[in-house]
């Protein structure tokens, strides 16, 4: 097992990572204030891994809530249903909520914890690779609104994150690869040594070798924790975490949400960002090639789907731009391990990166 501390003053918390952690009540105990617990999970995760969590919580009064599976349920209605169950169970402010599932469950449940009686403790027990390296760390919680993704939410840091890598054994391969995309992202934006380590361990990671998986998650969480500690509420540096995301969002939206997984689109978006950085003379060709090679070895596509034209990209990216006060900002690379956010790039470099229309 490896443990990492997220340094946020009074809101600091540990992240425990390893195999078999759902069998370790001692990791949970220090973070439980009372006997009363509420578990929020979903219909997919509960039958696969719920027994181990139930055994871990033996002796506690547990309110067990299973949501339907899917991003479509990341709504205020789901939050309200959780709050109703908590009120019915007469849970007080000393109760603790445990979020047990992927990023969707973590975001919904974390938001319920943020607002129930103005905020109660919560613990993240993430079960997808993406949630283990990304969404469970950093304290962003929330739900979607019909007018926009993640538009309703709160910052609410967990008391602890407990990552049992054994849960990944049941994760579909596409979901695994989507998580690996976000792992590669950390190497690209700020840790060249981690990137080189991934070049040596990517196949072992995809095969879920226990030690390699623990190490990859640990180093990813360390990168995210460092960025979050420097910029808890995203006023600056935290935006670097969006490498590949502007292109990626265009792919996700353009193909219809759910067709491409978020991480799959981010993988392709990072390859596009690398090519654009090379166009601008920032990234050396050999480094661009290294970036593309690793993304490809992770089983992710280097190019967007052919049906998305440059015109369509421009339209879709204009939506992102509106959200950012009229200026399109992109995360680009000076080198592997060194990224910058910039709104100042030649339009030619962008055009050369988008799909070329046939002549
Ligand atoms: P997800 O939660 O939808 O999980 C993907 C699928 O895997 C679901 O069907 C889920 O039920 C299933 N699943 C979960 N654990 C499993 C397991 N161990 N075995 C088999 N199946 C399992 O998706 P995700 O990729 O984990 O998270 C995406 C969500 O996270 C999005 O809503 C996104 O907005 C959010 N997110 C939040 C942050 C943040 O900082 N809060 C960061 C990144 C992403
Ligand atoms: Mg992401």
Specify the CATH architecture of the largest domain: 3-Layer(aba) Sandwich
| Low-pLDDT stretches | none
Q: What general form does the structure show?
A: globular
Strand tally is 11
For the biggest β-sheet, the strand order reads 1-2-9-6-5-3-4
State the domain count.
2
- Label the structural class: alpha/beta
Instruction: Name the bound molecules.
Output: nicotinamide-adenine-dinucleotide, magnesium ion
CATH topology title of the largest domain: Rossmann fold
Rg, rounded, reads 20 Å
In percent terms, what proportion of residues is strand? 15-25%
Catalytic activity: 7-phospho-2-dehydro-3-deoxy-D-arabino-heptonate = 3-dehydroquinate + phosphate
Protein name: 3-dehydroquinate synthase
Binding site for Zn(2+): 182, 245, 262
Binding site for NAD(+): 69-74, 103-107, 127-128, 140, 149, 167-170
How would you briefly describe this protein structure?
The model has no long low-confidence stretch (mean pLDDT 95).
Describe this structure in words.
Pathway: Metabolic intermediate biosynthesis; chorismate biosynthesis; chorismate from D-erythrose 4-phosphate and phosphoenolpyruvate: step 2/7. This is 3-dehydroquinate synthase. It is found in: Cytoplasm. Helices cover 46% and strands 19% of the residues. It is globular. It folds into two domains: 2-170, Rossmann fold; 186-353, Dehydroquinate synthase-like, alpha domain (Up-down Bundle), CATH 1.20.1090.10. With 359 residues, the chain is of the alpha/beta class. The strands form three sheets. Strands 1-2-9-6-5-3-4 form a seven-stranded mixed sheet, with helices on both faces. The protein has helices at residues 25-28, 45-56, 76-88, 103-115, 129-135, 173-190, 192-206, 210-230, 245-255, 262-279, 285-297, 310-323, 347-353, and strands at residues 2-6, 13-18, 36-42, 61-67, 96-101, 121-126, 140-145, 148-155, 160-164, 330-335, 338-342. Strand 3, helix 2 and strand 4 form a beta-alpha-beta unit. Helix 3 (76-88) crosses helix 4 (103-115), helix 5 runs parallel beside helix 8 and helix 6 (173-190) packs parallel to helix 10. The structure holds nicotinamide-adenine-dinucleotide and magnesium ion. Magnesium ion (MG) is lined by residues 134, 182, 245, 262, 266. Nicotinamide-adenine-dinucleotide (NAD) binds at residues 42, 44-45, 48, 69, 71, 74, 101-105, 107, 127-128, 130-131, 134-135, 138, 140, 150, 167, 170-171, 175.
């Amino acid at each position: 097992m490896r443990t990492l501390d997220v340094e946020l003053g009074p809101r600091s918390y540990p992240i425990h990572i390893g195999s078999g952690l759902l069998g370790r009540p001692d990791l949970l105990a220090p973070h439980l204030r009372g006997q009363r617990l509420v578990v929020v999970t979903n219909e997919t995760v509960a039958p696969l891994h719920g027994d181990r969590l139930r055994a871990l919580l033996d002796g506690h009064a547990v309110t067990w809530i299973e949501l339907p599976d899917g991003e479509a349920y990341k709504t205020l209605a789901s939050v309200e249903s959780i709050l109703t169950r908590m009120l019915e169970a007469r849970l007080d402010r000393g109760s603790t909520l445990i979020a047990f599932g992927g990023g969707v469950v973590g975001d919904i449940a974390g938001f319920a914890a943020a607002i129930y009686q103005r905020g109660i403790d919560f613990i993240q027990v993430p079960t997808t690779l993406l949630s283990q390296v990304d969404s469970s760390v950093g304290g962003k919680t929330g739900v979607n609104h019909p007018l926009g993704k993640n538009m309703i939410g709160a910052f609410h840091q967990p008391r602890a994150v407990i990552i049992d890598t054994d849960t990944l054994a049941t994760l579909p391969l596409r979901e695994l690869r989507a998580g690996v995309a976000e792992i590669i992202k950390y190497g690209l934006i700020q840790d060249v040594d981690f990137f080189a380590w991934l070049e040596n361990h990517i196949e072992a990671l995809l095969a879920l070798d226990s030690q390699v998986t623990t190490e990859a998650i640990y180093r990813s969480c360390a990168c995210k924790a460092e960025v979050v500690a420097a910029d808890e509420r995203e006023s600056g540096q935290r935006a670097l975490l969006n490498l590949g995301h502007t292109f990626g969002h265009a792919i996700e939206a353009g193909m219809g949400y759910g067709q491409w997984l978020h991480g799959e689109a981010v993988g392709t978006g990072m390859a596009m960002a690398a090519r654009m950085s090379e166009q601008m003379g920032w990234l050396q060709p050999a480094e661009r090639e290294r970036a593309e090679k690793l993304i490809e070895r992770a089983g992710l596509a280097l190019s967007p789907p052919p049906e998305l034209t440059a015109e369509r990209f421009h339209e879709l990216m204009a939506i992102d731009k509106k959200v950012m006060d009229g200026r399109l900002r992109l995360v680009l690379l000076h080198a592997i391990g060194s990224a910058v956010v910039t709104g100042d790039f030649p339009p030619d470099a962008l055009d050369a990166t988008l799909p070329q229309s046939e002549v």
